[in-house]
Amino acid sequence: KNPTVWFLDHNFMESMFWMFKKVNTGEELMGFYSTGPKIKENDLKISSLFKRFCNHEPVFAIIDIRPGVVGLPTTAYEAVEQVETSGDGKEIQKVFKHISCSIEAEEAEEVGVVHLLRDINDPSTGTLALQIQNKVSGLTGLLERLTEIKAYLENVISGKIPINNQITYNLQNIFNLLPNLNVEELVKSMLMHLAMYVSALVRSILALHGLLTNKIKYKDVDAVLDKDAGVGSATAVA
Q1: d(Cα 108, Cα 15) in Å, to the nearest integer?
Q2: DSSP letter for each residue of 195-222
Q3: pTM exceeds 0.70 for this model
Q4: Which of 67, 10, 81 has its CA nearest to residue 35?
Q5: Do the Cβ atoms of 43 and 100 come closer than 8 Å?
Q6: Per-residue pLDDT tens for 139-149?
Q7: Is 91 helix (H, G, I), strand (E, B) or coil?
Q8: Could you read off the pLDDT of 17-43 as tens digits, one per residue?
Q9: Which contiguous run of DSSP H or E holds residue 127?
Q10: How many angstroms from the chain centroid is the CA of residue 14?
C-alpha cells in the first residue's frame, strides 16, 4: 500500500455536517477520530480539511480497538505550527501536539455502565481470580506508564527531544507525593503485615497439601465403595 494515496468523501462529510447542524444546533463539531493505532502520514492533511467544519483547530483522536489494551484506549492530538531549523533556514511546519483527554459520562450513564460491567464476567473464574486479574491489569498499566517516563527522560538526557517544563513539574509532583518509607513505625507495621501475609499463605498451602494427601490416600477406598454400591454399573447401563 502506498501511504501517500488516500481518499476522503467530501460529499458525505458535507451532508452529515449540515444534517448535524439541523438536529444539534447548539453543539459544535470538535474533530475526527481514527483507529490508528498510531499517527499516520496523511492525518495532518485530513486535519486541515476538517478545519473548514470546525470553529477551532480540529481535535484528532486515536481510539485503539486492539484487544488487550491496558488503560485508556484513547489519545488526542491537535495540529500546531512549529518552527523547524534546517540547512536553508527556519521553516514553519505543522505537527501534532498531544493534549490530555478523558472519558466522562453523566451519573445515570455511569451507573448503567457499572451494572453492565458487573454482569460481564467469565463464569470459569471466581471472585478471587477476577480480583487478581484486575490487580495484574492495573500493575501492567502502571509499568507501561513508568516505561514511557523512563524513555522520555532518556531521550531528554541524550538531547533527542527538548525538555518540557510542564512534564518536569508533573514528575516532580509525583516524586513529592511518594510516601516516606523510612519511618520506623511504618517499617514495623509493614513487617507485621508481611508476617501475617506469609502465615496466611503457608496455612493455605498446608491445607491444600493435606486435602490432596487425603484424596490420594482414599482414592482406592472410594473406588471400592462406588463399585459395591453399583455406581459404576448404573453408569455403564445409562
Answers
A1: 32
A2: HHHHHHHHHHHHHHHHHHHHHHHTHHHH
A3: no
A4: 67
A5: no
A6: 888 888 899 89
A7: strand
A8: 888 888 877 778 888 888 878 888 788
A9: helix 127-158
A10: 34
